[in-house]
Amino acid sequence: MAESIKTALITGGSKGIGYGVAAALIQDGIRVAVTSRSQKSADEAAASLNKIKEGFAIGIESDVRNLESQEAAVAAVIEKWGQLNYVIANAGVGHFAPIGELTTEQWNETIDINLTGVFFSAKASLEALKATEGYFINIASLAGTNFFANGTAYNASKFGLVGFSQAMMMDVRNHGIKVTTIMPGSVATEFSNHQPSEKDAWKIQPEDIGQIVSDLIKMPARTLPSKIEVRPTTPAK
């Protein structure tokens, strides 16, 4: 193996759940590349993460809606560190409106990022993960099994992602690659233009999802928790 220290690529890793996962992995001694559609945002996140362990994070400008962009991100990790062990497909977007008001642009962006983007991340990283018997972790949502009003686009993308992820797991497990779907409920992040505050203390925190990813990676090779539902212990009243 070209490099003994393992590496991870986290899409949408500049904030929220992706950043929380990146911080947890660095604390475990894993080098991380965080992607964002903005190089500035990716670099700022990497600079902050490097305060945990210097030289353990890089930022990459990448758009999950573009396969070539995902291939370039994977290539950048391998060029920098020699291998790719983990991919956390976290990039996501949410548009919520009644079907009569949902625009075609909102529908397309939701499906392109939340579902097709994960397909592109998987296609781009598959050979690299085969080489390391790596791990592909999808950040889905409880909206992948629970539908709700105003959720046509988001529900469709997450229902599709759960199905995609579970089928992918069966496709690649004989290549030594693990696939897990994590399905969080309410998480205190900036998702859908929300600004986290003290009122979000009851919610799952990004570092909680980071802990789950860290624990998954440490599981024995013979054991695969393939789908994990995560909820706040005590929901808001």
Automatic annotation (TrEMBL):
Alphabetical GO biological process terms: monocarboxylic acid metabolic process
Family annotation (PROSITE patterns): ADH_SHORT (PS00061)
Residue span(s) of domain Ketoreductase: 6-191
InterPro entries membership: KR_dom, NAD(P)-bd_dom_sf, Sc_DH/Rdtase_CS, SDR, SDR_fam
Pfam families in alphabetical order: adh_short (PF00106)
Record-stated family: Belongs to the short-chain dehydrogenases/reductases (SDR) family.
Protein name: Short chain dehydrogenase
Organism: Dyadobacter luteus
